[in-house]
Design a protein that fits this description.
Layout (H helix, E strand, L loop, with lengths): L3 E7 L5 H4 L12 H6 L1 H10 L5 E4 L3 H12 L7 E3 L45 H18 L4 E6 L1 H12 L3 H4 L9 E7 L2 E9 L10
Parallel strand pairs: 1-4, 2-3, 2-4
Antiparallel strand pairs: 1-5, 5-6
Helix pairs in contact: 3-4, 5-6
C-alpha cells in the first residue's frame, strides 16, 4: 500500500443550546457567531491543506458546513464523499440530555475528560470502544481506496480520537485523554509498515473560543 496521508479536521463549534447537551449524532447547527469570529482559522486551513486531495465528510451537516467554510476561505472547491464510518459517537438514549443529567444514568464512573467511560454503552448507542472498532476499519478502507494520496476528512472529536487510538493501538480510556478542539488539525499517515501519527490537535490561526 502506498503512503496515504490523512488531514483530519474537527468540525466547527455548534450553537450554544446544543453545547449544553450531549448531542452525539444529532444533526445540530453550527454557531453563526463563531463562524465569523474564527475566519482566520479557516483561512489558515485553506492555505495549509494539500491541493488535489480527496475530501471526506460525514452524514452530519456540521462537517459539511465546515468544509464549505474552508472553501469560502480560499481552498479550491472540491467534491466530497460522505463516509458514515467516520460519524460521531452515537450516544443513544443519552442524546439531547443536559450534561448534568448524565452522571445518574452511568453504570461506571465517568471518564475524567469525557462524560462517559470508554466502555460505557448508552442504551441504543455506542461505547467509545465501539467507536474505535468502527472507525479503524473505515480508516483502513479509505487508506486502501486512496493509496498514495492526501485525504482531507472533516469529522468529529470522538472520531478523530478513535482514529488516533486505532493508529497507536491504545484502548478507549487512554484515547479519551486526547484533546481535539474544534477546527483543529490532526495528521495521520498509513504506510505499508503501519500507521504513523504526525500531529494531533494543531490549531491553525487565531483561537477565539473553545467548545465541546
Amino acid at each position: 500500500m502506498a503512503e496515504t496521508r490523512f488531514w483530519m479536521i474537527r468540525h466547527a463549534i455548534v450553537e450554544e443550546n446544543a453545547r449544553a447537551t450531549l448531542y452525539g449524532v444529532m444533526d445540530v447547527p453550527l454557531c453563526p457567531e463563531s463562524l465569523v469570529a474564527q475566519r482566520p482559522m479557516y483561512a489558515a486551513l485553506a492555505t495549509a491543506l494539500p491541493r488535489d486531495a480527496a475530501w471526506v465528510v460525514t452524514p452530519l451537516s456540521r462537517t459539511q458546513k465546515t468544509a464549505e467554510a474552508i472553501f469560502a476561505s480560499g481552498y479550491p472547491r472540491a467534491e466530497w464523499v460522505v463516509e458514515p464510518g467516520l460519524i460521531e459517537q452515537n450516544l443513544g438514549a443519552f442524546q439531547g440530555l443536559p450534561h448534568a443529567d448524565v452522571p445518574a444514568l452511568l453504570t461506571v464512573p465517568a471518564h475524567p475528560f469525557w462524560p462517559l467511560a470508554g466502555n460505557e454503552r448508552p442504551p441504543e448507542g455506542e461505547s467509545f470502544a465501539d467507536v474505535i472498532a468502527r472507525v479503524g476499519p473505515a480508516m483502513e478502507r479509505l487508506a486502501a481506496a486512496h493509496a498514495g494520496r492526501d485525504v482531507v476528512a472533516i469529522s468529529h472529536g470522538g472520531t478523530i480520537r478513535a482514529a488516533v487510538a486505532h493508529a497507536l493501538a491504545v484502548d478507549a480510556d487512554n484515547a479519551l485523554h486526547l484533546s481535539v478542539q474544534n477546527i483543529s488539525l490532526t495528521r495521520l499517515e498509513r504506510l505499508d509498515r503501519g500507521w504513523r501519527v504526525v500531529c494531533v490537535n494543531t490549531v491553525m490561526g487565531d483561537v477565539s473560543s473553545h467548545a465541546r
